[in-house]
Amino acid sequence: MNKIIIFTLLIFISFISLNAQQRIITAGSSSSEIVCALGDCEKIIATDRTSLYPEKLQMLPSIGYRSNISAEGIISQNPDLVIFEKEYVKAEVISHLQATGIETLVVTQERTIEGIQKRVEIIAKALNKSKEGKIIISEIKQAFKLLEQKIELTTSRPSVLCVYARGQGNMQVGGKNSAFNLVELAGAVNAVPEIEGYKPLNTESLIKANPDFILFFESGLKSLGGKEKILEIPGVSETTAGKKVQIISMNGVFLSNWGPRVAEAAEELFYLTHPEVVK
């Protein structure tokens, strides 16, 4: 009887030890933030170039960015679990890893409230953190509920032209199903709802859209030379956004990754597009 008890305890201790030493690699900032929010940030041994929050992740080895991520680079880190966001890496990379026997989890990066809740639920289950996952989901729901109450107290629904830029001559506007899906949840409307995804920015469509605000990623705004240079773009000065110099920007990852901080990002965008509201 004693031998059975001792053997059982040894198995249990081994399981706890293995779990404590679990080595995780994440590819996609949303997944990385979810793992950290669940309390397993210290188990991440490497991650991709977009995973910048929490800051400690920036000190880890990088597996690269999207198409540059290789199976060999991941395998060399000897992970127990790899978490990918669907379509973030090449399909053959995932297949290669699965063939090695490394546990691989692929989650869908759906930019909706339901989508982030589902990602949290799936990752939490994989990490045996379902209880913590439910708490995170509850907090997200509550935060959006409070934001909705603030939005209901306002009468303005400003139009926002979302621009993805990588320097002069490389600018696209984001419509539906783009990295800027958060606009509507921030009490504003997309200035070009007829666009699906992204289309090149042109003067005629810019003037026709006549946005109240023009929104950039901080990196994109910087690549164009700042607000002053934006006003020099043909057509901008003829819009309400240009006339009132309502050129705004947010951290690109924070705005677009729909991670555990998504409600915070929506609230920040709400205040940026509703300057009449006092925090």
Commentary on this structure:
This protein is an alpha/beta fold. The chain folds into 2 domains: 146 residues, Rossmann fold (3-Layer(aba) Sandwich), CATH 3.40.50; 120 residues, Nitrogenase molybdenum iron protein domain (Rossmann fold). The protein has 12 helices and 10 strands. Strands 5, 6, 7, 8, 9 and 10 form a 6-stranded mixed beta sheet that branches. It has a 4-stranded parallel beta sheet with strand order 2-1-3-4, sandwiched between helices. Strand 1, helix 2 and strand 2 form a beta-alpha-beta unit. The N and C termini lie far apart (66 Å).
CATH names the topology of the largest domain as Rossmann fold
Judged by helices, strands and strand pairing, the structural class is: alpha/beta
Write the element-wise H/E pattern from the N-terminal end onward. Answer: HEHEHEHEHHEEEEHEHHHEHH
The proportion of residues forming helix, as a percent range, comes to 40-55%
Total number of distinct structural domains? 2
CATH architectural name of the largest domain = 3-Layer(aba) Sandwich
- General shape: globular
Rg from Cα: 22 Å
Total DSSP E strands = 10
- CATH homologous superfamily identity of the largest domain: Nitrogenase molybdenum iron protein domain
Distance between the termini: 66 Å
| Parts with pLDDT < 50 across at least 5 consecutive residues | 5-21
Task: Please report the first level of CATH classification, the CATH class of the largest domain.
Answer: Alpha Beta
Reported for the largest beta sheet, the result is: 6 strands, mixed
Report the β-strand fraction as a percent range: 15-25%
* Count, helices: 12
Q: Mean pLDDT score, rounded?
A: 91
